[in-house]
Design goal:
It is a single chain. Helix content is 39%, strand content 14%. By secondary structure, the chain is α/β, with parallel strands linked by helices. The strands form 4 sheets. A 7-stranded mixed β-sheet has the order 1-8-7-5-4-2-3, with helices on both faces. The model has no long low-confidence stretch (mean pLDDT 97). The structure holds pyridoxal-5'-phosphate (PLP). Residues 59-61, 85-86, 88-89, 131, 157, 159-160, 181, 183, 193, 195 line the site of pyridoxal-5'-phosphate.
């Protein structure tokens, strides 16, 4: 049985009628940029995650960049984040002219280790970016507490964590500004690039909306230079349809994850840990094994696709050699990067498919 890593065609088949009619509405109206579809989705998604304001963006990366710009972060400033994330998190920092300051992750969840944040703070530190990696929230209580004591802003990278919660509260995963990606394979995925930034602060939402639309205040009025970081109407229309199904899909993902975790309870691989009070939305189901590369290759030969998120920690990427952080600097994240493997997980994955993956993993590693 061939098991793809994600199956967006299977998802489309379940909602085809609604998606097609939402797209056609935009095409027929010829309102492709801005307009009521974008506003409706901004309001619906912000309300879903429990924030007051949502500003649609062209991607998760542009949401992160705009968030830092809106906070006035720029050259000479430092922003703290962790070593196990996608490069977009640190790109957003560098694109403002600020410097990324990297710390290691928690052993259990591979999210930012709050115990390491304070030692990384300097007089130049302006913000911290926790990443809700794989769909599991970082330890936001601890991060918020440190940020409060040191007057830092919290910009949350929730690119992988739509619908995640802490203690049953969706708002508990938010920072001063929270950024989402709707990259097609995400739990809530567009049919192209898309993102959103949410906040409770009207001033921030207003600044972001202006900056993301060429610094435009009114027709031909540009007090500042901005960016073309707008969410387009077709993506908003698709996302608004999919948002109605998100909770159902998350529950399916969680039940797939539970089935894997129960099956791996006695080995031969160790799932990345889940903290009970952190409601993990399982964008990715990640296991660890010292034989990662052999396992991935052998699963591939059997038609089971896998991924690695991420094989090279941020500080060891060529792009960040100038930070001068050699191998050995962040032992927890570095070891995880050598051992992690992401298995197929999506709402349409059947029990039989999960069991096929589990049996294959068992046979390969026995
Ligand atoms: C953790 C993380 N941050 C940021 C991004 C960037 O999002 P996008 O691809 O929409 O720019 C992604 C997704 O790709 C991500 O997984």
């Amino acid at each position: 049985m061939n098991i793809p890593f994600v199956d967006l065609k299977a998802q489309y088949a379940t909602i085809k009628k609604e998606i097609d009619s939402a797209i056609f509405e935009v095409v027929e109206s010829a309102g492709f940029i801005g307009g009521k579809k974008v506003t409706a989705f901004e309001e619906n998604f912000a309300s879903y995650v429990g924030a007051k304001y949502g500003v649609g963006t062209s991607s998760g990366t542009s949401a992160l960049h705009l968030a830092l710009k809106a906070l006035g972060i720029g050259p000479g400033d430092e922003v703290i984040t962790c070593c196990n994330t996608f490069i977009a998190t640190t790109e957003a920092i560098t694109h403002t002219g600020a410097t990324p300051v990297i710390v290691d992750v928690e052993e259990k969840t591979l999210t930012i280790d709050p115990n390491l944040i304070e030692a990384a703070i300097t007089p130049r530190t302006k913000a911290v970016i926790p990443v809700h990696l794989f769909g599991q929230p970082a330890d936001m209580d601890a991060v918020r507490d440190i940020a409060l004591r040191h007057s830092l802003k919290v910009v949350t990278d929730a690119a992988q964590a739509h619908g995640a919660m802490i203690h049953g509260d969706r708002r508990a995963i938010l920072g001063d500004i929270t950024c989402y990606s709707f990259y097609p394979g995400k739990n809530l995925g567009a049919y192209g690039d898309a993102g959103m930034l949410v906040t409770d602060e009207k001033d921030v939402a207003d600044v972001v909306a202006i900056l993301g639309n060429h610094g435009r205040y009114g027709k031909h009025t540009h007090k500042v230079e901005g960016y073309n970081y707008r969410l387009d109407a077709i993506q908003a229309a698709v996302l608004d349809v999919k948002l109605r199904y998100l909770d159902e899909w998350i529950e399916r993902r969680r039940s797939r994850a539970k089935r894997y975790t129960e099956a791996f309870a006695n080995g031969p691989v160790q799932p990345v840990g889940e903290v009970e009070e952190r409601y993990h939305v399982y964008h990715l189901y990640v296991i660890r094994t010292a034989k990662r590369d052999e396992l991935a290759a052998a699963l591939g030969e059997r038609g089971i696709a896998t991924g690695i998120h991420y094989p090279i920690p941020i500080h060891l990427l060529d792009a960040y050699r100038h930070l001068g952080l050699p191998k050995g600097t962040f032992p927890v994240g570095e070891r995880a990067a050598e051992e992690m493997l992401s298995l197929p997980i999506y709402a349409e994955l059947t029990d039989e498919m999960v069991d096929t993956v589990v049996s294959a993993v068992g046979e390969i590693l026995s």
